[in-house]
């Protein structure tokens, strides 16, 4: 319901609200009928005597948002003190106004979603409770990010470590436009992160351009992860197109679980590392799949994908950029249960659960087709780029333990490199 001073409404506000999906009316429902979902009160100034009357017209039942046409720092404060649920003053950014109204409606209707919220909370809390006993700290964070992205239908979920005075943050885990192949985040691009760390409160950034889709725009929520008196990390949450908003309950749950993950990272920071972290993760994941496959009579495949390019293309910064881009695209193409990491300088290891040899071959073929677009893009680092692969699938008569899988897949990769056709070797 639009009420208050009609002359104080910004030009185009009705069109913006209608495009956002709201059904507008200027007539309050008769007594006894269901109240409106929200009340938008427009006034010229905060000292307008109609403010109190408009706020009292329907009591506290519908969310009441006040909009002042005149630019004023005191206006929103006065409206909130008088009982408004939200308030803004000119200049008004219509997408922000629509998001605020939607958020107030959603918060008022939140009890209807309580069973679902509780179910998601239990599932995620059970995940972390189990993970603390079986996973490494980095794996706990990665599992949390993946589960949050799926449970809340997020287009992006990133766990970023922050340190006072540092100009870059370290991305520990990200789903799904990024990954640990880009371990640093330029904080100068996100001054809102510093604001979230300083205030210890969530910060909402509207209309963030997605690097993967430059013409798209979405709201980004920067959620500080609190630990005692510090903020060691932030969660970056971008809702998906079909679920454009996150409720207060969802943010509270995400912050609580992220705090547990941050503690796990802190407690594990002093652990001794005898190998590269990515190889340790691969060893652990391969061991888990090996045991699961034997216990339940399942199959799985291990793939080595080798990036081959001209000698001048694989040296220096250009070569590393090519490898990082390959890692980006692999993670976008793989299924959620799949695992990928750097294996050697020019090789990537991929674990495909519940996938036999032929399924793995099809996956490699599909991945190479998608990666083939690299060769069509500008830049010396992507010229003459090609890919060969080796595949070993369990069960395999020569694989009695996980280490046997490494020997078999490396031999299969060598056979793939020796081919002139599809260049995919399979351990027979």
Separation of the first and last Cα atoms: 70 Å
Report low-confidence residues grouped into runs of 5 or more: 177-181, 210-217, 269-274, 375-383
Structural class, from helix and strand content? alpha/beta
- Write down the secondary-structure element order: EHEHEHEHHHEEEHEEEHHEHEEHEHE
Structure description:
The strands form three sheets. Strands 7-6-5-10-9-8 form a six-stranded antiparallel sheet. Strand 12 and strand 13 (347-353) form a beta hairpin. Residues 177-181, 210-217, 269-274 and 375-383 have low confidence and may be disordered. The chain starts with a strand and ends with a strand. It contains twelve helices and 15 strands. The radius of gyration is 27 Å and the shape is elongated. Helix content is 41%, strand content 24%. The chain has 428 residues and is an alpha/beta fold. Helix 5 runs antiparallel to helix 6 (137-151) and helix 6 runs antiparallel to helix 8.
Quick overview of this protein structure:
This protein has helices spanning 13-19, 50-56, 74-81, 94-109, 114-134, 137-151, 191-199, 248-268, 277-296, 316-333, 357-371, 402-418, and strands at residues 2-4, 39-43, 64-68, 86-89, 154-161, 168-175, 184-186, 203-210, 213-227, 230-239, 300-308, 339-344, 347-353, 386-394, 424-426.
List keywords for this structure.
428 residues; 12 helices; 15 strands
Q: Strands, helices and their partners?
A:
Elements: E1 2-4, H1 13-19, E2 39-43, H2 50-56, E3 64-68, H3 74-81, E4 86-89, H4 94-109, H5 114-134, H6 137-151, E5 154-161, E6 168-175, E7 184-186, H7 191-199, E8 203-210, E9 213-227, E10 230-239, H8 248-268, H9 277-296, E11 300-308, H10 316-333, E12 339-344, E13 347-353, H11 357-371, E14 386-394, H12 402-418, E15 424-426
Parallel strand pairs: 1-2, 2-3, 3-4, 14-15
Antiparallel strand pairs: 5-6, 5-10, 6-7, 8-9, 9-10, 11-13, 11-14, 12-13
Helix pairs in contact: 5-6, 5-8, 6-8
